[in-house]
Amino acid sequence: PTPLGTTVNDFLVEYFANIIDYDFTAKMEDELDEIANGKRKWVPVIKDFYQPFNKQLEGVTEVAERVQVPTEVTDEKCPQCKQGKVVIRIGKFGKFLSCSRFPDCKY
């Protein structure tokens, strides 16, 4: 697994264990099948899910913004300072290369 995948998994297990629980997902799949087969209306099913889920999201939003994804260290020396290693970081626009000595080195 990648560092990002591990971070996302750990976050979901810690803050959304009820949502990724096998029993919950099986029950939700059954309810969605009943909607698809015309046996249930979708609005009450989604409402029953969304109201508690939305409250759960509100309590976790600040935590999610502070989650740090570990950097991946490569074997390459920094082309700018020649002292640090090139690392792969994840920013809001995806992966980017940086120096392990940042902020001392601006690569």
Q: Any overview of this molecule?
A:
The chain is of the alpha+beta class and 107 residues long. It folds into two domains: 3-65, Topoisomerase I, domain 2 (Orthogonal Bundle); 71-107, no CATH class. The protein contains four helices and three strands. It has a three-stranded antiparallel beta sheet with strand order 1-2-3, with no helix packed on it. The longest helix is centred in the middle third of the chain and has 24 residues, at 42-65. The radius of gyration is 21 Å and the shape is elongated.
Spell out the helices and strands N to C: HHHHEEE
How are the strands ordered across the major sheet?
A: 1-2-3
Count of individual helical segments = 4
Oligomer state of the chains in this structure: single chain
- CATH H-tier superfamily of the largest domain: Topoisomerase I, domain 2
Mean pLDDT: 93
Number of strands: 3
Q: Classify the secondary structure makeup into a structural class.
A: alpha+beta
- Please report which band the strand proportion falls in: under 5%, 5-15%, 15-25%, 25-35%, 35-45% or over 45%: 15-25%
List unreliable stretches of 5+ residues: none
The CATH class label of the largest domain is Mainly Alpha
**What does the largest sheet look like?**
3 strands, antiparallel
The name of the CATH topology of the largest domain is: Topoisomerase I, domain 2
Bulk shape: elongated
Question: What order do the helices and strands come in, and which of them pair?
Answer:
Blueprint: H1 3-15, H2 17-20, H3 22-36, H4 42-65, E1 72-77, E2 85-91, E3 94-99
Antiparallel strand pairs: 1-2, 2-3
